[in-house]
Design a protein that fits this description.
With about 290 residues, the protein is an all-beta fold. It has one domain: Porin. About 0% of the residues lie in helices and about 55% in strands. The strands form two sheets. A 14-stranded antiparallel beta barrel has the order 1-2-3-4-5-6-7-10-11-12-13-14-15-16. A two-stranded antiparallel sheet has the order 8-9.
Length: about 290
């Protein structure tokens, strides 16, 4: 049977930035993390197609509920998707995200955003795989004001036993020109690492770290830890340093549960002026 996975997910991020908050990059939502397991560990995952060939099952999408939009407050994201291994060396994924903002007072218009992501991964060897994500992003901030762009992620993942390294360039695309100026896309160089330590047959500890450098001149980094019991129960914690990048700094914690082919992941962000008391939830099934 072809290895295939689908996710249903829901999450919430409470972002309290006011309308008009200045940003240096266009379409920042194209670089958001919609994975609660990653959020709970300080945004330490790089969601990319180069992961697909390394997994006997790949969990590749979801239905999510998340807030992030520097220009406007209270944007809620729903996302859905799926991923499949074509054979032992190749895999594909497709996801869809829609963000809906709060209605603009006095205008009677509700802004929205759309992100469609198609990915392809190919394994050169049991240790090395590469991936390509092509994203279509659109934001409609006012009835007569919208921006669209195509972004590309190019990544590579090296995996050897309990060690995984991922690196690449994400958010590649042409800058967007508006009436107020020219804004680059949120392009970044990303490096992430994970190491799993197993203790007997029932206990495992995963340490994860990630560093990003946005071409706009903003560094970011994250670190996290995950404890797993009997490959069923997961407890996670992490911290993300955002600096002046598009994702603010925050601390996080979360948990996960696997029962057969079904799972649930949850994350909670705190200790942040922007993301304090945020919540994210994902429900998934693989088959």
């Amino acid at each position: 049977m072809k290895k295939f996975a689908m996710i249903l997910a829901a999450g919430l991020f409470s972002l309290n930035m006011s309308a008009g908050t200045p940003v240096s990059e266009a379409l920042p939502f194209a670089q958001l993390d919609f994975n609660p397991a990653s959020i709970a560990m300080g945004n330490t995952y790089i969601e990319c197609a180069s992961h697909i060939p390394h997994n006997p099952y790949f969990i590749g999408g979801g239905v999510g509920y998340e807030n992030y939009m520097p220009e406007l407050s209270g944007t809620k994201y729903l996302n859905a998707g799926a991923a499949s291994k074509i054979n032992d060396n190749c895999g594909v994924s497709l996801s869809f995200v829609r963000g809906t903002g709060e209605e603009i007072t006095g205008v009677g218009y509700t802004p929205f955003e759309i992100l469609v992501n198609a990915g392809f991964g190919f394994m050169f060897s049991p240790r090395l795989a590469v991936g390509l994500n092509v994203k279509y992003a659109k934001e409609h901030l006012l009835k007569s004001y919208s921006n669209t762009a195509v972004l590309v992620d190019v990544t590579g993942t090296w995996k050897f036993h309990a060690t995984e390294l991922t690196a690449g360039v994400t958010g590649i695309g042409e800058a967007i020109t508006t009436s107020t100026g020219k804004f680059p896309l949120p392009t970044a160089v990303d490096i992430a690492a994970k190491q799993v330590f197993e203790f007997g047959s029932d206990h495992a500890l995963t340490l994860a770290g990630r560093a990003d450098y946005y071409f706009a001149g903003h560094p970011a980094a994250g670190a996290g830890v995950e404890y797993c019991f009997s490959k069923m129960v997961f407890v996670r914690a992490g911290y993300h340093y955002g600096g002046e990048s598009i994702v603010p700094s925050f601390a996080s914690a979360g948990a996960g549960l696997w029962i057969g082919n079904f799972y649930v992941d949850a994350a909670y962000a705190f200790a942040s002026d922007v993301l304090d008391k945020s919540f994210s939830l994902r429900l998934g099934v693989r088959f």
